[in-house]
Amino acid sequence: MSERLQVKEASGLMVFLGVQLQGWARSKIKQRLQSGCISVNGTTITQHDYALKEGDLVEVGATAKVANRAPSQLEILYSDRDIIAINKPAGLLSVGNAKETQQHALAILRNQLSRRTQPIKLWPVNRIDRDTSGVLLFATSREMREAVMDKWDQAEKTYLAIVEGCPNPVQGTIDQPLRLDEVEYRMHVGAHPDAKSAITHFKTERTNNARTLLQVQIDTGRQHQIRAHLSWLGYPIVGDERYGTAGERMGLHALRLKIINPKTGKELLFETPAPADFFALMNQTNLKAGSKKLTKIPARR
Q: Measured between alpha carbons, how far is 25 from 76 in angstroms, rounded to an integer?
């Protein structure tokens, strides 16, 4: 059974739950939050200070909610007249494609922010894969999108990745070009006349020998770059069916994005912690312990 609670006035999530769930210990509520058992408007939320608005629907379940449909609303991390950053859940497309024209982040956010007499237009600045969660950026005009992209080489893009095995050495740089195979829809790593430069830096955050949490930064932003590079290295991302082995959830999260505001010249930082189901992947140690040794890592530029 689950509790369905309607928000009647704006509040922080933990404060709201404390008032609504009379008789529940604070530790029990926090445990439900951290284990992914609480959703707002269909989206799993793990932040205790998540801002609730009047009319939001909060659901408290006994087990983690399985994402089987697109959320009706998305968590907004930052918003001004020109730029909107959201926390995209895993399993949701960034933008539409030929098969999916409605259930994607762009369409959901546009519907969320539009009013009957004032529809909003949005342009995607970056894209992250369907099964990757985390920071996704939109512009409210084509001009702003182009202005941000003009300085994209100065943007700092930081991810968290959970990989199979234990990289050795524990940090390094992958400097290998990538080429898209449009038939197989996957990236091939290595020199080729059609390949483009791609640079990925990684460092180990923690490991249990079977699986490792990496912090990853990319100098470039090629399609499937992190997934293809880490698989080439011998440590595929957990749950990545295309470059490794299928699983319930892919272990890749867009943690942080820092850009230059083209109007002010100042830095803007967007960040969102990885959800509980991401970190739960570290505890699924049904793989053989041990790891491959890294024979070479190109020097960091």
A: 29
Question: Catalytic annotation on 80?
Answer: no
What's the pLDDT tens digit per position in 207-239?
A: 998 999 999 999 998 999 999 999 999 999 999
When pLDDT is cut at 50, 70 and 90, the band that residue 46 belongs to is confident
Q: Is residue 270 within 8 Å of 257, Cβ to Cβ? A: yes
Predicted local confidence at residue 289, as pLDDT: 38
pLDDT, mean of residues 159-166: 97
Task: Tell me how far apart the alpha carbons of residues 106 and 123 are, in angstroms, rounded to a whole number.
Answer: 8
Name all contacts of 48-54 with Cβ < 8 Å and 24+ positions apart.
48/12, 48/13, 48/14, 49/12, 49/13, 49/14, 50/12, 50/13, 50/75, 51/10, 51/12, 51/13, 52/7, 52/10, 52/11, 52/12, 52/13, 52/16, 53/7, 53/10, 54/7, 54/8, 54/9, 54/10
Report the distance separating Cα 4 and Cα 60, nearest Å.
7
As a whole number of angstroms, the distance between CA 111 and CA 265 comes to 30
The whole-model pTM stands at 0.72
How far is C-alpha 211 from the geometric centre of its chain's CA atoms?
19
Catalytic: which of 49, 56, 82, 129?
Answer: 129
Angular region, 55: left φ>0, alpha ψ -120 to 50, beta rest: left
Residue 99's contacts (CB-CB under 8 Å, 6 or more residues apart) are none
CB atoms within 10 A of CB 65: 18
Looking at residue 32, its pLDDT comes to 83
Distance in angstroms (rounded) separating the CA atoms of residues 255 and 77:
12
Burial of 192 (0-12, 13-18, 19+ CB in 10 A): exposed
Query: How many residues appear in the chain?
Result: 301
> For 133, what's the count of Cα atoms within 13 Å in the CB-facing half-sphere?
25
